[in-house]
Amino acid sequence: VLAIVCVATIFARVFLVRRSELHLVSRLRRMAFTDPLTGIGNRRSLAAALGSLGHGWLITLDLDGFKQVNDEHGHDAGDTVLCAVARKLGELTPPTAHLARIGGDEFAVALPGSADQAIACADRLVASARDPRYPTVTLSVGVAEIGADPATSLRDSDIALREAKRTGKNRVARLTP
User: Fold this and answer.
1) What does pTM read for this prediction?
2) Strand (E) positions, 43-153?
3) 123-126, long-range: CB < 8 A, 24+ apart
């Protein structure tokens, strides 16, 4: 009886340790691929999504006037704006899209579909970016086709984003061949 109790205790401890390890691995994976402020993906998760998506479009978004919010209202207000943008992205993008915060006030959306669908999504995002509390904050958006290399896709989308900013901000620009 004592031997059976000892063996059962050992098995129970092994089970509990293994369960704890699985929970820890899951938590570490979530921490590695999630932006801690907004709860959406981070740059690492975007790279993984781009690698597995195959064909689609990458939309890169940058908040115009965001520095002014931080300077005038403080970083807590800035964090509130970032979280609101993340929520809005989730509401306005299709469920097949992958959302990520890839920098301070820069976000990305990777989505399958046609160029017209990507541009329509980007236009919706620009149109909905206004927050009455922070009227100076708008969105500039770059759109590029997803290629074989995630880094190249991000670079192409960033080129389009810079063009949107250079030509007046609060608009969408698409990188074309």
Assistant:
1) 0.84
2) 57-64, 98-101, 106-111, 138-145
3) 123/172, 124/92, 125/59, 125/61, 125/88, 125/89, 125/92, 125/93, 126/170, 126/171, 126/172
Burial of 77 (0-12, 13-18, 19+ CB in 10 A): middle
1 pLDDT higher than 90: no
At CB < 8 A and 24+ separation, what contacts does 8-12 make? none
- Residue 69, CB-side half-sphere exposure with 13 Å CA sphere: 22
Q: Are 143 and 122 in contact (CB under 8 A)?
A: yes
On whether the CB atoms of residues 97 and 107 are closer than 8 A, the answer is: no
Measure Cα distances from 45 to 39, 95, 108, 142, 161 in Å: 12, 16, 11, 19, 20
CA 7 vs. chain centroid, Å, equals 48
Burial class from Cβ neighbours inside 10 Å (0-12, 13-18, 19+) for residue 145 reads middle
Ranking 10-14, 56-60, 96-100 by mean pLDDT, the lowest is 10-14
